[in-house]
Amino acid sequence: MRRNALELTPKVKLLLVGLTAALWVRSAAPTQAHGAKIEVLPQAVEIIATFDTGEPMDNAQVAVYAPDIPDTPWRTGQTDSEGRFSFTPDVGIAGGLWEVTVRKAGHGQMTSFSLGEDANSRATTPSTTQSAVQKWLSIAAVIWGFVGTALFFSNKAHRGNGHPQSTGQPTVEPALESARTADSRAAVVAGLGGDGKAAAEDYR
Amino acid sequence: MHIPDGIVPAQVCAAGYGLTGLLTWYSLRQINKQGDPSANVPKAALLTAAFFVASSIYIPIPPSSVHLLLNGLLGVVLGYFAFPAILIGLFFQALIVGHGGLTTLGVNAAMMGLPALLAYRIFRLRRLLNSKSTEPFIIGLFAFLGGALGLAIAALIFTAVVIATVPAEFNAQAEQAAIATLTISHIPLAILEGVFTAMLVLFLQRVRPELLEGNS
Question: Does B63 sit behind a cis peptide bond, omega within 30 degrees of 0 on the bond before it?
Answer without folding.
Answer: yes
